[in-house]
Amino acid sequence: MNSKPLSSVAIIGASVLLVAICLFVQSPRAGTDVAAAATPEPSPTTAPTPYMPLEEIPNGNWDVIEQGYASIEYSRMVLREIGNTVTGTWYADGKTTYVLDGSRDGSHLTLQIKSAAKPDAAVVGKMEADIDGIADMVGLITMGQNQIAFQGAQHGRVPPPVDQSTPAPEQSPY
After folding, report:
1. Which residue intervals of the chain are DSSP H helices?
2. 159 burial class (0-12, 13-18, 19+ CB within 10 angstroms)?
3. Smallest Cα–Cα separation from 150: which of 113, 103, 95, 101?
4. What is the C-alpha separation between 8 and 88, in angstroms, rounded?
């Protein structure tokens, strides 16, 4: 061994070089023959946004949340639209019921709040709101000098997706 130290180092060096070449050839990054690792891809379809035509939205039962200065109040109203005329009933609490009468101009509702369902009934306030295409509204209720922000929703009436060919949640697009 002492007589040939350079040949021993050369053999060890060649062995290390051979192992390194073998590892490099087997590496996925080494050549084009090895397929790249699969990366997750998004679903081929985009989830559609639910949408309901504006003329269909006012009709039905609405859950109302009034956001006053000191408290939050919950109430309910039922609206019906014929053409651009909107009528309905607002059940403000267990004892107070108002008649609503007004119109829709595009996505904007303007409703008079009346004390009774008579043509000459006193107007006690006004409700103005903007509706969107997914059965929600947001606006102001004005009663005398008081303005109360509110939002309304038709939770049981969220519209179907725009694209009916989108798979149901339990179905896979693959």
Report:
1. 5-26
2. middle
3. 113
4. 99
Residue 76: how many other CB atoms lie within 10 Å: 14
Token pair in block for residue 125: 């306030």
Q: What are 50-71's pLDDT values in tens digits?
A: 667 777 778 889 999 999 888 8
Q: What pTM does this model have?
A: 0.61
Q: pLDDT, tens digit, for every residue of 94-125?
A: 899 999 999 999 889 999 999 987 878 899 99
Determine contact, residues 98/90, Cβ cutoff 8 Å.
yes
Residue 16 near residue 24, CB atoms below 8 Å: no
DSSP string for 154-167: -GGGPPPBS-TTSP
- Domain 54-156, CATH among 2.70.98.90, 2.40.128.120, 3.30.450.40, 3.30.70.1130: 2.40.128.120
Structure tokens at 38: 């699969």
Residue 120 DSSP label? T
* Position 169 confidence tier, pLDDT thresholds 50, 70, 90: low
